[in-house]
User: Fold this.
Amino acid sequence: MSDCDILVVGAGHNALVCAAYIAQAGYKVIVLERRHKAGGAVVTEEIVPGYHFDLGGSAHILINHTPIVSDLKLTDFGLDYIELDPLFFAPFPDGKHLTIWRDLDKTCASIAAISPRDADNYRNFVNRWKPMAEGMVGAFLNAPTPLNLARYLVFGQGFSTNGLENLQELMKGYGQLLRQSFAEPHVPAVIAWMAAQSGPPPTELLSAPFALWHPMYHVSGMKRPRGGSGMLTQALQKMIEAHGGQVVVDAPVVKMLVERGRVVGAHTSSGESYSARRAVVSGAHIFTTLKLLGDHAPAKARAAIEKARVGNGFGMMVRCAIDELPDYSAKPTATSDRAPGFDAASQHIAMQFICPDLDYLDRSYGDFLAGRPSAEPAVIAMTWSAADPTLAPAGKHVLFLWGQYFPYELANGEHWDVIAEREAERILAVLQRYAPNMTRDKISGWLIETPLYLERELGLHRGNVMHLEMSVDQMFALRPAAGFSKYRGPVPGLYLTGASTHPGGGIMGAAGRNAAAALLHDLTRNRVW
Assistant:
C-alpha cells in the first residue's frame, strides 16, 4: 500500500508551496526533509542564545508579487508580515546618502538632495521600464512556454511600443545600461548592487533585465515575517499538516525508488521507504536530484542537465549578535528621521547598501574571477531587529552582513574552514568605514556562512544560493535545461521545483506554485498514475 498520493523530496520554500497547493486540492502529501527543521534556505534558528538568525534569505520582496499567501491562507497559520519602508539605504564615501522608499515621489526627493538631475532620470527610468518589469512578473508566475513568454515579454505590458529600442537596451550588461541612464555614480550603484544579488555581474551581456526589475520594488515593497524569515516556511508546514499532510524532518533521501521505469517513492538514510500512488516531486538541487535517480536517469537527459552551470559560488554571510545598531557617518542616528510606524531610524529598517560605485563592484567581481575573495567586497547590512524586536534580547540587535564576491573554490588552494574568520573580519571592516562604531567588541557572537558552509548545511552546491547561475542561457525555457523547464523530470512520475527551475532563486515561491499547477493539471487529466 502506498504511503501517500504525492511524495515531496526536500522542504525548501518552493517544495512546501508546491506541497501546500496539492494538499489544498485534496491529495495526501508527505514531505521529506534532510535537516532537523523544514524550510531549506528560508529558515530561522537561535544560533546565539536569545538571537534569532536567518540561515538563508531574509528580505521578502518577490513573494509579494504572487497570490501565494492569500491562496494558502497562511496568516491563519501564524504568518504575520511586517511591512518595511524604506526598502534600501545607501551611504557613500563622499558623505552623501540616498534612500529608496516604496513611494516614488519620496524616493526622488531623496535622490534630488544629492543630484536633481538624477532624480528626474530615476523617475524616467522607473516609468519607462515598469511595463517591462510587470511583464516579467507575468512570465515568472507561469510555466515558460513559448506562448506565455510571448504573451508577457513580447506582446504584453507595453514592450511592443518601443520594441527595437528596448531590445537594444536589453542586450546590454546592466552596468553599461545604468552608466548611460544616470549622470552621477550614486543611483547606478544602488540599482546595480541590488541587481547583482541574482548573480550575473554588471558586465555580462543580456543581464540588463536584472536592473530593469527595479521599478517593481516600488510596487511590491518589502516585508519580513515577524519572528524571522523562517516563519514563512513554518506557516507552510502548519498549513500542509492542517490539510492532512505530513512533514518528516531528519529524513535525508538517499535514493529515488523507481519501478518499471517510473519514480514511485524514495528511500531515506535510516532505511525507511516512502511510496507515492501518483507522483514524486523533487525540490532538491537538480544535481542532487540526478544523484538520487542514479542510473535511472536517461543518458541523454543526464547529459543535458549536467551541462547546467552551478558556477563558483558568489557570496558569503556573517550573522552577528550586536550590542548596538550601526551609526552611519553619512546619516548619524541622532539626527535621523524615524521610519513611519517604527521606533527606529529609517536606515535601520532598510537594507543598507555598501557599494560606492559601479567600478567598485567591477573590481570586486574581478577578484572573484581570479579565484580569490574580494579585497573590497560590496556588502549589504541588515538589522531586522530594528523592525522586529522579537529577534534579539531587549536593547540588543541582530546584524546580517552579505558580501560579494567570494568564490567557493580558491585559486591559491586555501580552505574555507581556515580562512572563514579572516574573511568575516574583512566584511566587517567594510561596514566600519561607513559606521565606525561597528567594532569587533560590539559583537557578542556570530555565525559565518562561507560558500562551503552553504553547501554543507543548506545543500547549495558550490555555495550558489540560486542553485544554478542565472544567466540568460539558463533562464526561462532553458532552466534547468532545454526540455525540462515545464516542471516534469527526466523520468516519468517525477516533477521538479525549487531554485533549479523557472524562475530561479529568491523568496518568491513561484517555482512551487507553477510546479503544483503542472502536477494538478496532469492529475485531473489522469496523466499521473
